[in-house]
Design a protein that fits this description.
The protein is mostly beta strands and about 250 residues long. The chain contains 1 helix and 11 strands; from the N terminus they run αβββββββββββ. The protein has a single domain, classed as Porin. An 11-stranded mixed beta barrel has the order 1-2-3-4-5-6-7-8-9-10-11. The longest helix is centred in the N-terminal third of the chain and has 15 residues.
Amino acid sequence: MRTHFCLLTFLTFILFLPFFSPLFAQDIDNALWATIDIKKKFKHGLALNFEEEYRLRDNMSNTDKVQTTIDFSWKPLSCLKGGIAYCRIDKYQTDKTWELRHRYIAYLVGSYDIGRFSLSLKEKFQQTNRVGVAGTANRSNPTNVIRSKFEVTYNIKKSPLTPFASVELFYALNEPNGIQDPAAAKMITETRYAAGLEYSFKKNLAIEAGYLSSAGKGWDKDALGNNMGGYLMSYTNALTIGISYTF
């Protein structure tokens, strides 16, 4: 028990040490991300998942986006799962109009248990197409991204609570930089850290609450002044809540 506690403390410290730097940045937005997740399990490790997500931005005063995801997965082994998904994104713009985006996803998840700890690594490829938006030297469309997420959960004996912590990197495959061809630049454009608790009411019903910190870079046409473009960092602190049901 003492070893497990020490290891959990160490992993938490390593994962969330970068949390404190964004707290002192000036360009920070406070957000709320809420999700409803419904999952149907079939035989032979097959599953169909439906998720609805709603996000608030601008210190939780404005809608950011609404996302609807349909996910089909297969788990041939207890330690391996793969899947494909489609996500419809309705993004609320600053000019009070909605922009439709289509996202296509393929992913692979590997997991491994160490005592009461569960470690997982998820590799995801996603392509996002913004409807009615043309690609330029400063803006790719569609955008291709690889997301790598490492997560640690801990199973508390005889408790419905499950703490978790994760870190996720977004690696853009065709992010433009205003000079090179839009298909030429590759870089890490976002890093996310998250922590929280899941509470299981029953075997098939659970709620989750947590905190997420995101540090991302985006192109600004006048980042360096005098119409000189460049990348600027932005930070988001988000409260995350969700409910999931499996049948």
